From TrEMBL:
Binding-site residues, a divalent metal cation: H94, H95, D137, H257, E261
Keywords, in A-Z order: Hydrolase, Metal-binding
The keyword Hydrolase is annotated on this UniProt entry: yes
Annotated GO MF terms: hydrolase activity; metal ion binding
Protein name as it appears in the record: GTP cyclohydrolase 1 type 2 homolog
Pfam families given in the database record: DUF34_NIF3
GO cellular component terms listed in the entry, alphabetical order: cytoplasm
Protein species of origin: Denitrobacterium detoxificans
Similarity annotation: Belongs to the GTP cyclohydrolase I type 2/NIF3 family.
Keyword GTP-binding: no
UniProt xrefs under Gene3D superfamilies: NIF3 (NGG1p interacting factor 3)-like
Quaternary structure and partners: Homohexamer.
InterPro entries found in the cross-reference section: DUF34/NIF3, DUF34/NIF3_sf
PANTHER family reported for this sequence: GTP CYCLOHYDROLASE 1 TYPE 2 HOMOLOG, NGG1 INTERACTING FACTOR 3
Amino acid sequence: MVNSTKSSTNGAHDLAPVHAETLSVPGTGSFTVGDIERALLSLFPKNQAESWDKMGLLVGDPSVRVTNVGIALDPTLSAVRQAHRMGCQLLLTHHPVFIEAPESFTPASQSVVSPGSVVFEAARLGVALMNFHTALDVNPRVPQLISSMLGLSFQGIVDVVYPESQRGYGHLCYPNEESITLRTLAARCVSVFGRIPRVWGDFDMRVQSVVTCTGSQGDLAQICVERGHDVLICGEIRYHDALPAAEAGLGIIELGHDVSELPLCLVLADALEEIGMARTAMHIIDQNCNWLTPEAVRK
């Protein structure tokens, strides 16, 4: 199992095979940072990432041999330091350490922690930073994982961006039960993700179709309204996008951007195992408590 306080997913996610010759020492699970990047790029290709994205190896020496990998949603300063304490030469994340290149690379101070200071600390500690961001967002492993977590049957992609591979954003799903309400679906999200979501719509509405989306919903709310889907479960939606969609009858369950994407750490772990890395060499860094929702207290 992955070294983590989180439980792993059940079963594989149909990961594409990686040939043994991509490894430094075929059959031994011995990798360099560059080996891991090349192998994972075969699963999460750059040509399926957004043009503005920064993915792959952003910080570090490709020739460094890797014995342990830290896995996290975000390459924060604390995640870099924790990976170093765990003996990791690589921190593999969903999000990149920067989109726009930092103007400076200086140590973090008590008042300022910038992407440049994270890069500085990673380089100082010898922790390479690698991510697969939007190429991971559109990977077929993601809808399979999210739908199975929520007890839904995945049917297809709503907003197809890459027709040749049928990859894109928004995962059309159907409930496995004959009758389910928005209230039940929202409660299930609380149970699965461990956070209280923001919910728009009639709690007693009957749900026949669900569109799931990790991270920001983009234009999916409008697409759901136009195509008559009942509920959108997303990581993040702007108020002025949610309001008209809800008034048009769309139920919306907003999980929180990070909450919706934390399971992607398990997808990355499965991908590392598929290319030959031992689960005992992986360490998922728990970022589940970056923010909290205080409970109401009555005196």
